[in-house]
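@channel sequence for tomorrow's demo:
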Amino acid sequence: MGSDYNHTAIAANTNSFSITIPYANMGLGTNDCAPKRFFIVVHTGVSGETAFLSWRYMTKDINQFPEACDSVDNGGGAWFGFGDFYLTPAPPSPAPPSPEPPSPAPPSPAPPPPCDDCPSLFISEFHYDQNPQGGNSDKREWIEIIVPAGFDWRQDLWLAQYTFNGNPQTASGSLHGNVFPFTSPQITVISETRLQTPNFDWTALVIDLQGNLQNSNGGWDGFALLTKCTDGVRWSVADFICYGANSQGFNSIAANGPAAGHSCTNVGAGVIENNNTPQGTSIQRLNTGDWSTVATWNWQASLPQTWGSLFNPSIALGTVPQVEACGVPPLAKPPSPEPPSPQPPSPAPPSPAPPPRPPSPAPPSPEPPS
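structure tokens (generated this afternoon):
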């Protein structure tokens, strides 16, 4: 402030008061960080007495504060002051820290590895009901499955039955009973037949469920052909068939069991069997191409049974998929070629021929007679 005093009158009987000193009066800016020394001097009406308020004071004829007041008023009243105040303007408050970014979402779990199953297994024929008359009480509730000839069905094939209830558009499939391997007592293998040319690399497997194949009885039933993935834990649905009365437009999803989430293939409206079905007939898949087109083949009922053979045996199923799960052994790596035999050492060069000997001198001629 220097000598730039700001005189402020204080009303009588004031017990406290405040003084506001603008930064500019002290030569300060709001961004300055240098301390500034200043003094506050108060003149009171206490006459001839000392009013002590701080370390140094001023009163009549006494001045302990010469740097703030260069003389003492000898008139009425006394001066006193607070000494050596320092003011350090605070720098501007730092900006608040930026909010922490949200924690990254945990990574999604890795998808399971591919199943590595055999893709060319399918159901080609089945029979579940017939007319009990005619002298043959054996219903032959059989199912025929086509598999590659090298496929190990004893270890790798299971069957699960399903029942569907409710409206055909909204019905859900529930597992009926257990999941049976083909070696279980509930399944009898009737035949294992190698197909004829052009399908010699394929086998027709016929099984009997011993009267346990579901009869739709006006509802809907189904069965799923299953294998296990190479991890031995997850199921793979090779084929899933559903059948029954009034199945027009029916295409439903299994709600539980190993086929859960899979939609069954409806054999079609009217493709059914009942107690009027002639004996010796079955429901068959009309093969019209190789195994990769099986989903487009139609089903037909009341056809003469062809157990152990395709409906049309002359149509080629094509090449068995070259995967180990289908029974095709992985191709062996060709043996590494033998390293070439080392070359025999070159023969030593022939020794040089010895130089020819000079001819022996001729013997002397005999002396002539005297």
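heads up for whoever presents: The longest helix spans residues 153-156.
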